[in-house]
Design brief:
CATH class: Mainly Beta
Radius of gyration: 16 Å
Largest sheet: 5 strands, antiparallel
Number of helices: 1
Strand order of the largest sheet: 2-7-4-5-6
Number of domains: 1
Order of helices and strands: EEEEEEEEH
Number of strands: 8
Structural class: mainly beta
């Protein structure tokens, strides 16, 4: 694998059970992305009801919560506001073996009903078509629950 670029994506999503698509697919099987950083924060970091969490997946989902045994989930983040007008504390966990050939999806929920801000850093790689095919299979749900 040869690194060919670094990208940053940021935006805001509604806190609900819908997956939000982040378009990465360039129609090629010899390039892929790796998530290297994932940060979230509540729309209003001063609100005590701003605690939120989010996940990145390789397939859309409507199921809330984290399932580390689900191979389609590749990154998880949490942001916590201790009390009103206090600092925001965040943490993220990223599967170090993630490799995305097609699109990425983000889904989040929070203690209130406000939107969730996100920032995702990605590296783009030039890979073999075999590595691309393998990553695509790995990123698909295999139906085991």
């Amino acid at each position: 694998m040869k690194k060919i670029g670094k990208y940053t994506m940021r935006g805001r999503i509604a806190a609900d059970s819908n997956s939000n698509r982040i378009l990465l697919d360039d129609g090629r099987f010899d390039t892929a992305f790796r998530v290297i950083n994932f940060i979230i924060a509540a729309k209003d970091p001063n609100a005590s009801s701003g605690d939120c969490n989010a996940k990145l997946t390789t397939e859309p989902t409507t199921e809330l919560g984290w399932k580390w045994d689900d191979q389609t989930q590749i990154a998880w983040a949490v942001s916590e506001v201790r009390v009103t007008s206090s600092p925001v504390f965040g943490r993220s966990i990223i599967d170090p073996d993630n490799l995305i050939v097609q699109d990425l999806f983000i889904q989040g929920e929070n203690a209130g009903s406000a939107d969730i801000n996100y920032l995702i850093e990605l590296e783009k790689y030039d890979i073999s078509t075999f590595e691309g095919a393998l990553a695509m299979v790995r990123n698909k749900s295999q139906g085991a629950d």
